[in-house]
Write a structure and sequence with these properties.
heterodimer; A: mainly alpha; globular; B: alpha/beta; two-stranded antiparallel sheet
């Protein structure tokens, strides 16, 4: 899917990945929710970032040492989706 | 924790030490670099470096096994064993300890290592998986086992007493040295050769560590604002411990006294550190040593350079030392020799003993700016000249296994 991924495809897949970490159905993942609100801790985030990298064959600049300070915005689901869309365009466009 | 009122047994001193690290081979090179604040971290020289996101490490580039060991020895010695044997040689020669027939069964060997012989695993996986080979060298098993460095050190010096390896992730060396100390103190052995080793700078190990996303791409900056994580290292340090009585009787030079050892488990998270667990291990070491907080002038920190460790460690030091936290110096020598995982506590014990003997407390280098979360005297970028009577060395491992050693300067 990496070559032809539209923004919509990316959003759907990212939400699926986050939902899996949160042990929720993708329909239950609100776009304005923070990882914390979904019950995704720092380990869960590291796993989600790995799954995102694998799904889109991209490299995500996420540093678990200080997640809020890395170049990858993880403040909400919407922010993560938008950041991944940007990275896919940048690295696969 | 040790019973505060209970008996402690015999006094135990260090009469020999040896080290190999990215800062150099031998105590002189390692400690001179610590005094200067030299950074041992550089781009690594390993296969497939171009496929790694993290390309820096604290590699002991000056240490070449092929220059030291024969072909038949190299067939059996992973780099972990090579490093451990070199450190043990320096320690044994320095101690001048003769392992007589009577002493041998009372001489212990306790060596810490978090991992296995990762170079051996990497090389042979490469052969069978990547190159499709269907057989490997016959001695891969004894070469890669976690206990191999311990076995080879015991064999080299004929140490026939209690011998075991310790693997508690990043606390392995401190657990090893601490257990050896307790063994000698209690009469379970007369002398002990103890320390820690790690040789994790291989492609596969680096890939695994990259996955955790706690590694820095530029420099290890413990306790500094703007720190970006840890740097992996290789190295070994080995010590000869014996009773004060024995050391005096044979006129040995005494480098320091090991005074106390404290252990704890966070029983919390597999990667996140805990203030409570760290504090209880430090407290345990002080109680075991019958050491008042005011006696301690220097703490060699676990100080990995990750946001979580450094913040937690500083809070734990405040909790244990109270007002003394503002009087003591706490530095992370990992800023210079990197994080050698199961060998870390041993490299740091060399720094601790050197600080007690020389009155030069090593700096925390690469420090950019004070971090309010780490508001202690971390000796930023410059060593501190100060004679201290006692010092403490912290190791806090992934999985919450904590080990802290307290030592005193020995003035005779």
């Amino acid at each position: 899917m990496a070559d032809a991924a539209t923004d919509e495809d990316v959003a759907r897949k990212v939400i699926e990945i986050i939902a899996e970490q949160a042990v929720l159905d993708p329909t239950e993942v609100r776009m304005d929710a923070t990882p914390d609100e979904l019950g995704v801790d720092s380990l869960g985030l590291v796993e989600a970032v790995f799954a995102i990298e694998e799904a889109f064959d991209i490299s995500v600049p996420f540093n678990a040492n200080d997640p809020t300070d890395s170049d990858f915005d993880i403040s909400t689901v919407a922010a993560i989706v938008s950041a991944v869309q940007g990275l896919v365009r940048e690295q696969k466009g | 924790m040790t019973d505060p009122e209970g008996p402690r047994g015999r006094r135990v001193v260090v009469t020999g030490m040896g080290v190999v690290s990215a800062l150099g081979t031998g105590v002189r090179a390692h400690t001179a670099a610590l005094d200067e604040g030299r950074d041992g971290v550089a781009e690594m020289d390993i296969p497939d470096l171009d496929r790694l996101a993290i390309r820096i490490g604290a590699q002991a580039k000056g240490f070449v096994g092929e220059d030291r060991y024969s072909r038949s020895e190299l067939a059996l010695y992973d780099r972990t064993t090579q490093l451990a044997l070199a450190a043990a040689k320096e320690a044994m020669e320095g101690a001048g300890l003769e392992i007589t027939e009577d002493l041998a069964p009372r001489a212990a060997t306790v060596i810490g290592a978090a991992l296995l012989g990762m170079g051996t695993i990497d090389d042979n996986y490469r052969q069978v998986f990547q190159e499709g080979k269907n057989r490997v060298h016959p001695f891969i098993v004894p070469r890669l086992m976690n206990s191999a460095p311990c076995s080879f050190v015991s064999m080299e010096y004929g140490l026939k007493g209690p011998a075991w390896s310790v693997s508690t992730a990043c606390s392995s060396a401190n657990h090893a040295i601490g257990q050896a100390f307790h063994l000698v103190r209690s009469g379970g052995a007369e002398v002990a050769v103890t320390g820690g080793v790690e040789a994790p700078l291989t492609f596969g190990t680096m890939k695994a560590w990259e996955g955790l996303r706690v590694m820095t791409k530029d420099a290890c900056r413990p306790f500094s604002k703007g720190r970006t994580g840890m740097v992996l290292a290789e190295g070994a340090a080995v010590f000869v411990l014996e009773t004060l009585e024995r050391a005096r009787a044979r006129g040995a030079e005494i480098l320091a006294e090991i005074a106390g050892f404290g252990m704890s488990a966070d029983a919390g998270d597999i990667v996140q550190p805990s203030v409570d667990g760290a504090a209880r291990a430090m407290q345990g070491a002080l109680v075991d040593a019958r050491m008042a907080p005011e006696e301690v002038g220097y703490v060699n920190a676990h100080g990995t350079g990750t946001a979580a460790n450094d913040r937690t460690e500083c809070q734990a030091v405040r909790r244990v030392f109270g007002p003394q936290a503002d009087a003591l110096v706490i530095s992370s020598t990992k800023s210079m020799h990197g994080h050698a995982l199961g060998g870390a506590g041993a490299l740091e014990m060399v720094a601790l003993i050197h600080a007690l003997r020389s009155g030069v407390l090593p700096p925390t280098i690469n420090h950019l700016e004070a971090d309010p979360d780490c508001d202690l005297d971390v000796a930023p970028n410059m060593a501190v000249e100060r004679r201290v009577g006692a010092a403490v060395s912290n190791s806090f491992a992934f999985g919450g296994l904590n080990a802290v050693i307290a030592a005193r300067r020995f003035d005779g």
